[in-house]
Predict the 3D structure of the following.
Amino acid sequence: MQASTAASTFRQISETERGERALRAAAGALVLACVERARNGGVDEFSHRRARAEVERLGKSPERSILLRLLLMVEGDSLAGTRLATALVSYACELERTRRLVEADAAAALALALDGTTSATALHAARLARKLGHRERALALYCAARDLDGGGAIARLAEVGEAVVSDDAVRALGRAVRRALAADDAEAAAVGLEERAAARRAHGDRPGAARDLLLAAARFADPVDRARVAHELAGVTLAAGDADAAREALRLALAWGEAPQRDHARTRLHTLSRDVGDQVGMRRWRSFKRPPLVSMSASRAAPGARSLAPRLLRWREALERAESPAS
């Protein structure tokens, strides 16, 4: 995607969508048009005022703050490529977080046009291209990110991304994880393990996916990442009919997660308790709040299958002992 199409992409979405997404796309289109005009040497005070008015109509949110910051940078003639690109990447990340991938891709493309020498910008653009199914563009951007970084942490994450879109993702991700571990890069190794779990699950290898998710959770440093992986592990074990392991994984998500992750874990624990006839669990995990996400029912238990629950229980208890104050 060329940078010159970023504002027009947002404008098209504002004209074809309805409701809040259309309003936010319209505001984003006006701000990105100001950025593009300023980048090409044009100054239009009326466009700036109109963009600001549209952005200020939005409710308070990270997106609104980022758009106002972009306008301030343009109005203040702060067109240093790296600084403006960093703000655009923040905007793309917020759009990605709210699942507006097309808009995020357009914002990342504009950031890349403003600053094509920063590996982090190329990595963000590559991930969005991959999520949108643009394999060849994703590969080119991952290669660019790796070359720009020259062997650092970004390069290792780019290698993970390249592996995901390769013909044999499981094997390529295994190599990427081993190289990350050899470099003592636990974060890149965890990302690779999480991606390999997704690839294995897509091929029906649920035990392998569960093992990779366990290892990923152990290597992530951020509790929010750990909680996300715990929710994924609960999904894998539920699909295999291992309700006990799913319960332990969700209790790990409760221990690690931020508020929305904890709320979703409670909802899933209540649903799981209901499905297995656990009256005590139903009372314990009952919530009168509206659930933020849909909670799926458990699959029928697989007879004779070896449960991951004891391993997860030992891990959770060890974590609780480590985090409790010394007596």
User: Anything to note?
Assistant: The chain has a mean pLDDT of 88. The CA atoms of residues 33 and 61 lie 21 Å apart.
